[in-house]
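Annex B.
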Amino acid sequence: MHAPSLPDRSIEAYAPVTGADRLDRLRSLAAALSDVRVLHVNSTATGGGVAELLPSIVPVCIDLGVDTDWLVMDADDDFFEVTKATHNGLQGDAEPLTEEMKATYRETTERNAAELEGAYDLVVIHDPQPLGMIDRLERTMPGAPIVWRCHIDLTDPSDEYLAFVSEYATRVDNAIFSRSAYGAEIDVPAQSVVHPSIDPLTAKNRSLDAETAAAERDRLDPLSFDAPLVTQISRFDPWKDQFGTLEAFRRAREEIPDLQLALVGSMAGDDPEGVELYERVAREAVDEPDVHVLTDRPDVTVNLLQRESDVVVQKSLREGFGLVVSEALWKRTPVVGSNVGGIPLQIEDGHTGYLVEPDDVAGAADRIVALLDDEDRRTTYGENAREHVREHFLLPRQLADLLAVFAEVLDRDGPG
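Glycosyltransferase: predicted structure tokens.
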């Protein structure tokens, strides 16, 4: 186990983008937890939504006076092959779960749990990867509640993978899901719903000065910002459906011949499929100069692309939440997204963008064209989008919801 480095964060820095009443509620909730020591555990410090959220959540909690640590598991490729199969199985696409896979999972989680030092009043386990640590946690910290923060869509899981994860999940004190529907298939003692959020202060989301923006444009050459641009930003993962986005782009290009597509993705540290899928997508698009397949670009580059794209697409087949949608909406860029998972919570259809069914390539292409053909509509949707995210999907709101769950689990009196 290791502790990633953390940026400096102050709750006061969020005052320009969120209401004073929300910040006051955060301070009141934190005061009720001022003598509590909290640990977050996940499986990677790079790539994916959890690894982006915790570097903001943890230091803001510390600034609020809640003693909070974050530890990341140390594991090898064999373990991550098992946990990626588990992730896929929980979303309905299952390879056989063998006894050898279970043994690899148990050995790795037990070894990591044995490295924990000190005592905590509450432990938050993110997703299935660290859940196996619960055996040792129950022995070494018998009075500490365990909260499982599940970021995955569990609406259509494979029975054998659900049963395997349930061996551990049924023993936690509370499970937090991104949507209420995700908890319907699993029997846990208590459930809460907390929608994820974006941090408007990070390099990916804060405003860009003219000099920085110009430098990033130059680095993206030969991609042109003088021609229409559609972008999808997501991990290279089969559930993100980069191939469907590519086909929707090709259909839209029949109406808008100079259209460009940027498919931009990162490689999550706990996802062994990423490199293989990136290579497949790159091969599929190699003969199309207007398609740019980019990987592992810095956050400031992603920021620029989300700001300067005419339309952002998120054509996922399954999606736990999909914070890249709110990232683009925050930057006043309308989004065409699939009507799955957390995406419809973020996109107001016909107001901030459009929703299409995940297998509706033609519908996605039509919506892309409709937005590209109407600059006034794009501008209006963009302004609507900014305010929608400001109200619902910025970090202070998520953190208030999270601390409220902690206060409830620990039976602490917080604000009503």
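The mean pLDDT is 94. The chain is about 45% helix and 15% strand. Further annotation is deferred to the next reporting cycle.
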